[in-house]
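Hi there,

I know you've been waiting on this one. I reran it after we fixed the sequence typo, so this is the corrected version. Both the input and the resulting structure follow.
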Amino acid sequence: MDLTYFLDRFSEPWVLTIGGFLAGALFGGFAQQSRFCLRAAALDFAHGVFGVRLSIWLFAFSAALLGTQLLVGVGEVQSQEARQLASPQSLSGAALGGIMFGVGMVLARGCASRLLVLSATGNLRALLSGLVFAVIAQASLRGILKPLREWFAGLWTTADIGGNDLIAHLGLSQTAVIAFALLWFAAGLAIAIRARTKPWQAFSACVAGLAVPLAWWFTSSVASQAFDPVQIEGITFTGPSADTLMLFLSPAHSALDFGIGLVPGVFAGSFIAALLTRELELQGFEGGRSMARYGTGAGLMGFGGMLAGGCAVGAGITGASVFAVTAWITLSAIWLSAGLTDYALNGRPVRNGRAGAAIETP
């Protein structure tokens, strides 16, 4: 894609910001329509329910993996230049951060991306939780929690194991990687057929997942044509949420980039989708205890996501799509801790509804 005209006319930061907004709007709109939610999928899996919610997550996940690896295969995306692979990452942070994020995700009744999507539809619980998430993420990135995050992150890094590239560690061919991604899609399709997932939901989940390779492709295109160095990146919400918060609090000290456009783009896309389908509805907290639970969960996700190097989407899908070792560790830790947290809160899982029941919103 030739971006020379836009880069000359609008400058690199503005092109990146606009691209981030469009990619975010695509993700937000179709995530809202598909009811994409890692928490819902993880809890259904823990309960032994292989239904609609799990199929939706598998469609989005496999679409991101397959789309990204196809672009890598044809040379459109140089995955080795991604932050997850180009620089040392924290293995200890991936494990501990993933555990914290999974616990927080259950307490807040949604991951960072889900809270952002829901806040745009009028869910005030999700909006406040999202703000707490962004504040703690900013404190962990550059504020009072930074030393603690760096100490945990420095305990064990990918420099100790010779890099963060899982494909290189396993010696996989590009064909094998694509076949692996297709297996995830086949699993989603099998579950969707059994659970009678609505075609529109399945399609929307795939499009939401394809926003990840779209982001890789767009930032790679800008990086190859820009005069100044540009970091290629996919979709993530921990760092961009913190940066977007600072943009509103201190505009003079904030730099425009892909992530700055991403967060408002997701909000706008979700709002438009909910508006067109008449799903806008104001919702609030049910009491003080509920508010404390959501705030605690959001705080754990803010610190955990920053420690892990990404959220449920940033590490769990975007990082996994380039087969970063730390991303797969984080994703596994999120799934495990979410199931254990739900068990600790609610006791032995009871199947009290049919597979594919409507998603519980925070």
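Quick highlight: The first helix runs from residue 4 to 10.

Best,
R. S.
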